[in-house]
């Protein structure tokens, strides 16, 4: 490795370390404010649009959970990082034709939002002899257009996941809707999660909160926050 490459790697490592320290501090503060134990909340580093070398640096810095939202990008990145002790979370909208690939590296899929997807993931997990964790994604604005199931459909979908071979039900996931105070939306999510947990006591994961709203999510019971920008920097605008 040349000196300049070495140096830029060190600079990038420092940048990420600073982001990580700040995010961990915010999570800690949110836990204290909510009277929760710090170890009730797990940070998932969302590495979309950032290279495998950043995943490697995050791992060096102690991160063990990473998230990706597009299979085309995630599959090669996960392959490049195969030697690392990481848990991979798939957090993006998922089409059934991508399920085979996603199941090959994802340990947990956060975006299960329809019965057909449960069926396909279960079958593929069986073929690949894997156990895949599934979270039911909730459309907190009751509009499934951007991904997520309507709140009214969530209990039944959770039952389906719990009953499907090769899958385990982790719990629920949501993204705060646009144009509503996140805390209000996360309060609804927390109620729905409690209802699901009554039927499935081991489904304790609540995946909510991103760079801008992780505090509100932790205040409302999030166990997993998914953070990209605050760790790695602002992503370039996505151009189709
Ligand atoms: C990109 C993304 C995140 C991280 O968002 P930031 O605002 O960059 O922290 C979290 N969850 C999902 C589903 C995402 O697509």
UniProtKB/TrEMBL annotation:
List the residue ranges forming a coiled coil, or say none. none
Concerning CDD domains, the annotation shows:
PLPDE_III_YBL036c_like (cd00635)
**Where N6-(pyridoxal phosphate)lysine occurs, residue numbers?**
48
For this protein, the record's SUPFAM superfamilies field holds: PLP-binding barrel
Indicate the segments forming the Alanine racemase N-terminal domain, all copies. Answer: 37-234
State a single Pfam family of this protein: Ala_racemase_N
The answer, when asked if Acetylation is one of the entry's keywords, is no
Q: Respond yes or no to whether keyword Membrane is given for this record.
A: no
The record ties this protein, via InterPro entries, to: Ala_racemase_N, PLP-binding_barrel, PyrdxlP_homeostasis
Q: Which PANTHER family match?
A: PROLINE SYNTHETASE CO-TRANSCRIBED BACTERIAL HOMOLOG PROTEIN, PYRIDOXAL PHOSPHATE HOMEOSTASIS PROTEIN
Q: Which family does it belong to?
A: Belongs to the pyridoxal phosphate-binding protein YggS/PROSC family.
Record HAMAP family: PLP_homeostasis
The task this protein performs is described as: Pyridoxal 5'-phosphate (PLP)-binding protein, which is involved in PLP homeostasis.
* Name by which UniProt lists this protein: Pyridoxal phosphate homeostasis protein
Which species? Nonomuraea guangzhouensis
**Taxonomic lineage from the root:** Bacteria, Bacillati, Actinomycetota, Actinomycetes, Streptosporangiales
């Amino acid at each position: 490795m040349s000196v300049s490459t070495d140096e830029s790697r060190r600079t990038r490592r420092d940048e990420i370390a600073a982001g990580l320290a700040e995010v961990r501090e915010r999570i800690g503060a949110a836990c204290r404010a909510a009277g929760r134990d710090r170890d009730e909340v797990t940070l998932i580093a969302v590495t979309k649009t950032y290279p495998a070398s950043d995943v490697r640096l995050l791992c060096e810095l102690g991160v063990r959970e990473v998230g990706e939202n597009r299979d085309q990008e995630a599959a090669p990145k996960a392959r490049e990082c195969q030697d690392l002790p990481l848990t991979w979370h798939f957090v993006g909208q998922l089409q059934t034709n991508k399920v085979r690939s996603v199941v090959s590296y994802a340990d947990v899929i956060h975006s299960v939002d329809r019965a057909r997807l449960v069926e396909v993931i279960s079958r593929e997990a069986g073929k690949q002899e894997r156990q895949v964790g599934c979270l039911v994604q909730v459309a907190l604005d009751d509009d499934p257009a951007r991904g997520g199931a309507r709140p009214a459909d969530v209990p039944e979908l959770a039952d389906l996941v719990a009953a499907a071979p090769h899958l385990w039900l982790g719990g629920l996931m949501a993204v705060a809707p646009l144009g509503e105070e996140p805390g209000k939306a996360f309060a609804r999510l927390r109620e729905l999660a409690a209802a699901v947990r009554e039927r499935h006591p081991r489904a304790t994961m609540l995946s909510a909160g991103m760079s801008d709203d992780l505090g509100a999510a932790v205040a409302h019971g999030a166990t997993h926050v998914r953070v990209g920008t605050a760790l790695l920097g602002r992503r370039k605008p996505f151009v189709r």
